[in-house]
Amino acid sequence: MNKSKPYAPSPRIERLRARVLDPRRRPVGSRWLREFHYLESWMAHESAALPARNAEALAHVVEHMPAVVHKDDLLAGEHGFCHFDTPLNFWPGPHLEGCRQAIETARLSAARRRRVIEWLAREPFEWQRLTAVEDAPPEYVLAHQRGVIEVWGTDLNHSVRGYEKVLRLGFSGLREEAQGAIEALDVSEPTAPHRRANLSGWLRLCDAAMVLGRRHAEQARRLAARARDRDLKRRMSGLARVCERVPAEPARTFREAVQALWFAHMMTCWEDGVNANSIGRIDQFLWPYLEADLAAGRTSWDEAGEVLAALWVKLYQPYDVQQMMVGGVRPDGSDAVNPLSFMVLDVTEGMGFVRCLSARLNRGTPRPFVARCVDLVARGGGIPFFFNDDTLVPALTSRGIAAQDARDYAAIGCVEITIPGRASPHAVSHWINLAKCLELALNDGCDLTDGAQVGPRAGSLARFKSVDDVLRAYTAQLEHFARWAVYGSNRAELAHRDQFRLPYLSLLTDDCVARGLDIIEGGARYNYHSSAAMGIPNVADSLAALELAVFMQKRLSGGEMLEALRGNFAGREDLRLHLRNRLPKYGNDEKLPDSYAARIARQYCELLGRFSTPSGGTFFCHLFTFTLMLRHGERTGASPDGRLAGEPLAYSVSPVQGRDREGLTAVLNSLSRLPHNLAAASSSAILEADPKLLAGAAREAFVDLIVTAIRNGVGQMQWNVVDAETLRAAQNDPDRYRNLCVRVSGFSQQFCLLDRALQDHIIARTKHARR
Hints:
single chain; alpha/beta; 6-stranded mixed β-sheet; 4-stranded mixed β-sheet; 29 helices; 18 strands; globular
């Protein structure tokens, strides 16, 4: 696989690809088998301790989910979740009404259906609602209702597990580690009974996992025995030999390593769902196996490409945030780009569907690798997207991550950052709507739309004498709501300790086994929550507008501005258009709004870094909105930048849609002024480029643009290469443009699958036709 011979799927891979892309071929009802088996064991172990009950339930799933092998398969196994549906889960608790509704569609016998109905009637997860935390206080509820904060606080999904350990040790080796920890445990130590319960559950899970490959080997042998075609018999016999080995034992070859990785990921999905459970630095942990195979003549580049393509098929989801990364640096800081880094790009391009993929870049990244990434960007679909090692590694080390671990960071799902197999990141634990904080700061803590008291009384724009007064009032609101956002995240962490365990994630996370603690209990080496800032560009533009229009130019008084905002600019369209179109905006290389954006982002990162979590960690900061800029925009009043009440907020740290008018270089200069080196959970920016900017000879200049942005400290970039006319045509004729994919909000998606509000938001972004 090289530049002269790009990857092209074989007929076999094309058949596998067609199968997962066709909703008519999805496995009807199979998604409920996991739920049934989990619940079956859960009810059989009602008297067991929580660690044992969760481990037994997951082990039962691993032992009883069907061993699926298709005649075209190069990799065995499926987790059973439909590619076109979102499965209901029993984690962390009661989705029971949906389960009741699904019973009739599941492929369950009449006897099994009766049992499920009987179990659900007993409300098997009802006890999880009783946790050792108080009911949500009214101040916290009000902040949620008014769109100032949104708290998820999740331990669930959003992981990059230590898959390398499965490849290197196999579950037999992982079992030895857990057994060794039990034997080393001092039974007189006060917490020994609790730690032993965790470790015993992990042993049970290892035993189940060690059988997983052998069950699939048996199925492959059955296909081989029935096969009349020699090629099919040979392939199935070979697949059976691979599955006899992994995941029970350490992988020895590239083929075994990829199969072990897929089995390991299947188990992740059975424990914790598909969403945002990611693969990590695939080129780093798979390359040693491929390099050895190539040197020994055990495989070829073409054969390895087919195996990777088979993995891409297995991973396929229409909404895919099973992130994988290539590039970056090694733990010692040296360049990590290798031939497999390029193969991952080649296979992604050749498969022609969205595969969640990002690239780590830095000052030392080889230009050919950057150029190859740009080749894929030019095709559209928003992949790969880019992370800057030169900003993220220092951000992580400043928050207490050891340098060698920080250099091994990987993205979860959209843009969230973790240390694979070593951290509990509580990704996107909460958001704070900074635009709403500014709204309250201008109106003495009251909502502009109805006057309700939402935040603390800290003064009114009608009485402020300078922009410094505005900033003091804004800070008072931010500090107030930051405390409640932190409260919500910590409340969720404490509640989850009483609700469920994640034994498999714990088994693959350092130092859970050594400590005998589940990851939910703080067993990981690194424990932190990720706090996300929303509305930075809106606040920056608004502060610039206030400084100029109210306090410097004195076009109107503070009171007049406040009345215009309360009335949503009714009768003041001239003022709104002046604020919107005549004053400097972030994203245009303008010093005033850019400096405010940097100041607001720095303040946020420094403030949240002062709070603590129940596990002794702190809060890492995101400059990231996900898709919440739409919902929270609806709950945010008019703002001094000329935005009407209810309009969307800006996406993450991208300029307000349509306000960046000076070209991509200006946007990147504005982005470079933000303190990305403080955003340890990552920043996020989606940039729109007209396809002409990457056509022909112009592509090398675009490579220069990316390289320069990295050197200037831009922390993260995602690219949409599509023009607005194409998007409007796709809105009007979705069937014709069914394969058109765009970068949405940290993920790529088929444009026709987005709702109208998201489509309109993407169309409104500036499509830059010049650098």
